[in-house]
């Protein structure tokens, strides 16, 4: 230990560098637990670049440092300093690439509590390459439990805070999503989602008891792609996904004086018109050829469906007489989440109400979430509540703590 101290005292530049490096490492770690590698990569990159430049002598920084510690200015190139700087820059690049290759997966846990961690091996996800952010929403969609205004406030405040935290923590990494929560809560989570798009959607397949990954397409070089297409003289339109989500009845066929409309989206199950009697409004049906489980298989298909639904919502909003749009969705969780990210109800869209389906209930759609210019609110079987408050109820904090405790006990039981 004494020899190390003596060595550092005889090499004040290395001592100063060690102190500065130690400070930046401490600052990066304390600043963000999720983005340690990103912070450290910036630190190492900046310090390494400074060392490389300073290794050739004569920089203002070197002159100032040498003046403070009263040593003579070194002539020529300091190869030790140069190699140290290069090593730090290389380490910075490695850490940055490692951070960006990690995936942060958002999991909205509903009635069926399925975790990506339980399917880690088959998805080929390594412990150090992904993290899973769980939002426990089981209590808000459990059979036999009624949705109330208090529960609605708890759920939306909890979702908003967790999604905002997730967006902040995953700013520099890949993003994933999966979920089994109620469709209105899923759409609200998408509504709160900000920043870069989701890279991978994980959808559970009941028949195979496994997850299927809907991946974001990699962007290819446009020049090369166009050059090859010209050589082959291929028709690019034939290679594109053919949208099979078709409107059964056009908006133009609706009565001119309607104040409300029901828009149904049938992807996994076909929505029956006799299930919609509670709304007493015309039914506009968007459906695929043969609805079935796990119908959405790729990102292009998902984006195409979302764009079709969004365009239909916009067209319906243009009709002056329409004041409310009842939105019924039967699909995988990725679709309402993705659609929620596109909602722009604060501007030109009419109030859109997303409903939760319960086959054993009468009516079949006991509650929903209304998205409108005045914010969000709860709809209870044709009974409406007031605008949603942005205040954080005490019970939501207690529920969050109970979720953390439940997760810890589950981990202990599984050991």
- Detail the poorly predicted runs: 29-34, 230-239, 389-393, 406-415
How many structural domains can be distinguished in the coordinates? 2
Q: Look at the structure and give the mean pLDDT.
A: 76
SSE-based structural type: alpha/beta
Helix content: 40-55%
Commentary on this structure:
With 415 residues, this protein is α/β, with parallel strands linked by helices. It folds into two domains: 2-101, no CATH class; 103-394, no CATH class. It is 42% helix and 18% strand. The chain has helices at 2-10, 12-31, 36-54, 60-69, 79-101, 149-169, 183-192, 222-232, 236-239, 299-317, 334-342, 394-414; strands spanning 103-109, 130-136, 174-179, 200-205, 210-215, 246-247, 260-266, 283-287, 324-330, 351-356, 367-372, 375-380, 383-384. The chain has an eight-stranded mixed sheet with strand order 6-8-7-9-10-11-12-13, covered by helices on one side. Strand 3 (174-179), helix 7 and strand 4 (200-205) form a beta-alpha-beta unit.
List keywords for this structure.
single chain, 18% strand, disordered C terminus, 415 residues, five-stranded mixed beta sheet, alpha/beta, eight-stranded mixed beta sheet, 42% helix, 13 strands
What's the short story on this structure?
By secondary structure, the chain is of the alpha/beta class.
Q: Topology of this protein?
A:
Blueprint: H1 2-10, H2 12-31, H3 36-54, H4 60-69, H5 79-101, E1 103-109, E2 130-136, H6 149-169, E3 174-179, H7 183-192, E4 200-205, E5 210-215, H8 222-232, H9 236-239, E6 246-247, E7 260-266, E8 283-287, H10 299-317, E9 324-330, H11 334-342, E10 351-356, E11 367-372, E12 375-380, E13 383-384, H12 394-414
Parallel strand pairs: 1-2, 1-3, 3-4, 7-8, 7-9, 9-10
Antiparallel strand pairs: 4-5, 6-8, 10-11, 11-12, 12-13
Helix pairs in contact: 2-3, 3-5, 6-7, 6-12, 7-11, 10-11
């Amino acid at each position: 230990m004494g020899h190390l101290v003596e060595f550092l005292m005889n090499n004040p530049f290395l001592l100063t560098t060690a102190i500065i490096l130690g400070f930046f490492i401490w600052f990066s770690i304390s600043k963000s637990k999720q983005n340690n590698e990103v912070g450290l990569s910036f630190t190492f990159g900046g310090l390494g670049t400074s060392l490389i430049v300073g290794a050739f002598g004569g920089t203002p920084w070197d002159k100032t440092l040498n003046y403070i510690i009263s040593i003579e200015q070194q002539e020529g190139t300091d190869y030790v300093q140069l190699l140290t700087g290069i090593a730090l820059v290389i380490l910075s690049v490695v850490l940055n690439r490692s951070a960006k290759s990690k995936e942060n997966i958002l999991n909205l846990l509903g009635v069926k509590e399925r975790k990506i961690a339980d399917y880690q091996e088959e998805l080929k996800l390594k412990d150090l390459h992904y993290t899973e952010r769980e939002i426990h929403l089981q209590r808000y969609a459990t059979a036999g439990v009624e949705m109330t205004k208090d529960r609605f406030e708890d759920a939306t405040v909890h979702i908003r805070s967790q999604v905002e935290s997730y967006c902040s923590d995953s700013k520099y990494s890949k993003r994933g999503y999966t979920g089994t929560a109620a469709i209105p809560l899923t759409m609200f989570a998408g509504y709160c989602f900000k920043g870069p798009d989701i890279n991978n959607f994980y959808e559970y397949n009941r028949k195979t008891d496994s997850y299927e990954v809907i991946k974001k397409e990699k962007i290819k070089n446009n020049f090369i792609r166009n050059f090859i297409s010209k050589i082959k003289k291929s028709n690019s339109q034939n290679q594109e996904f053919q949208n099979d989500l078709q409107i059964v009845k056009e908006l133009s066929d609706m009565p001119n004086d309607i104040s409300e409309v029901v828009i149904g989206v049938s992807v996994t199950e076909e929505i029956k018109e006799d299930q919609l009697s509670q709304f007493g409004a015309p039914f506009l049906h968007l459906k695929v050829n043969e609805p079935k489980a796990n119908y959405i298989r790729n990102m292009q298909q998902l984006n195409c469906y979302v764009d079709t639904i969004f365009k239909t919502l916009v067209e319906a909003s243009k009709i002056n007489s329409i004041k409310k749009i009842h939105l019924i969705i039967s699909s995988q969780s990725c679709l309402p989440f993705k659609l929620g990210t596109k909602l722009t109800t604060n501007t030109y869209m009419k109030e859109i109400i997303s409903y939760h389906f319960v086959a054993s209930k009468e009516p079949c759609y006991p509650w929903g979430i209304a998205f409108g210019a005045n914010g969000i609110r709860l709809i209870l079987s044709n009974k409406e509540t007031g605008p949603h408050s942005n205040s954080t109820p005490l019970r939501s904090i207690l529920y969050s703590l109970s979720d953390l405790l439940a997760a810890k006990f589950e981990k202990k039981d599984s050991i």
